[in-house]
Amino acid sequence: MTDKLNIDQLDFEKGDGLIPAIVQDVTTKNVLMMGYMNRESLEKTLESKLVTFYSRSKKRLWTKGETSGNVLNLESIRQDCDADTLLVYVKPAGPACHTGSDTCFDESNEGSIQFIDHLKKTIKDRYESPSEKSYTSSLFKKGINKVAQKVGEEAVEIVIEAKDDNKELFLGEAADLLYHYLVLLQAKEIDLEEVIEVLQKRHK
Known about the structure:
Number of helices: 6
Strand content: 15-25%
Largest sheet: 4 strands, mixed
Shape: elongated
Helix content: 40-55%
């Protein structure tokens, strides 16, 4: 988390003890807001894993979401080349702006990747709290062999569609494969992020 951050290198003096902190959603890469940190608020952020700023108006530390519950869960922090600005990667628990907007720039923080997160949560819920009416729950009930078999079947079907020129059918099979793949990961109790980490290591 702190491989790109060295607190002792940061130039707090340039801003009279404060340093700008740009907050970015680690998933969508959208900029959510900007605040100021002093050394104490930065240390508290690293310790609590909840983004904490220094309020210039209230003259005190304040943890984002301390009253609304819309906290910013810390993922990592980087310092810029001059060591006088921070880039804070977070996973927001609700709107970032006090107005109720997703960001303090009145922009939507929606992204297609967020639907994948939503789908993962739904699949996990069906895994932990089975429903008789749920197709996903029925797959888990049949066991890992059946889930793996479905992934194999969908893989074969997408290969078949890839040989033709029907984009709509290919997209349908691609969606089926991705869904069943996520179900398989849940059945193995493996998060998609773990797979992505393997890809990132290979890319390096």
